[in-house]
Amino acid sequence: MNRLPDKYFLVCLLPFIFYADLVFPQRISFGLFASDGIMLETGSVSELDFNSKQPVIFGGNSVSIALNDQEAGVIVITGKSDLDVTVSVDAPLTLDFDENNQVPLNIGISYCNLGALSESAAKQQAVNVPPGFTGITFPVLRGNIGPPGPPPSPDSPGSVPAAVAYLFIYGILGPVPSESQAGEYNGTINIYIEYSTYN
């Protein structure tokens, strides 16, 4: 059996140790909370994983996941087509390894309520929520523009069809402080959805 010289092994190992100090695995999961009559599911992407966009994240850099990127988080909202929903997104301002190691996080929110038949079609039709807003109210299924129609009949089985709306979560991680501890910075974005009451 041929054995490589110890010097060769040491030279090959050092670059990996150097890069290991600069890698910051970043995953953000979603906590989903809905009122009665609303069903929430994660779509094809169930978490924001900034490392799927950029496998190695160096100190001083930022990583961005945009609405049209395949890494954007997808939440599927199924509810009564004739009602409005209020969506509240509670996201941390930083992802923390510990109290001394924090990375800034800015999220973006978009939604589609046009009856899109797929996530990709919904992304093309999505409405962006202005930066800084963490809540929005919209109809589950946007109807025709104009005065409202007559009120719906009282609930009875099958009287109001369900509709699907999409919510997209994306954002910018960083800039990563250059002195940050290498490690996994996890976080949770909580999403609350309920029928609007207008009280």
3D structure, described in words:
With 199 residues, this protein is mainly beta. It has one domain. It contains three helices and twelve strands; from the N terminus they run αβββαβββββαββββ. The strands form two sheets. Strands 2, 4, 5, 7, 8, 9 and 11 form a seven-stranded antiparallel β-sheet that branches. A five-stranded mixed β-sheet has the order 3-1-12-6-10. Strand 7 and strand 8 form a beta hairpin. The longest helix has 15 residues. The chain starts with 5 loop residues before the first helix and ends with a strand. The N terminus is likely disordered.
> What is the helical fraction, as a range of percent?
10-25%
Major sheet characteristics: 7 strands, antiparallel
Percentage of residues in strands: 35-45%
Low-confidence stretches: 1-24
C-alpha Rg, in Å? 22 Å
Shape: elongated
Distance between the ends: 79 Å
Mean pLDDT: 81
Helix/strand order: HEEEHEEEEEHEEEE
In short:
This protein is mainly beta.
Fold topology:
Elements: H1 6-20, E1 26-34, E2 39-42, E3 47-49, H2 50-53, E4 63-65, E5 73-80, E6 84-90, E7 94-98, E8 101-112, H3 119-125, E9 127-128, E10 135-139, E11 162-173, E12 185-195
Parallel strand pairs: 1-12
Antiparallel strand pairs: 1-3, 2-5, 4-11, 5-11, 6-10, 6-12, 7-8, 8-9, 8-11
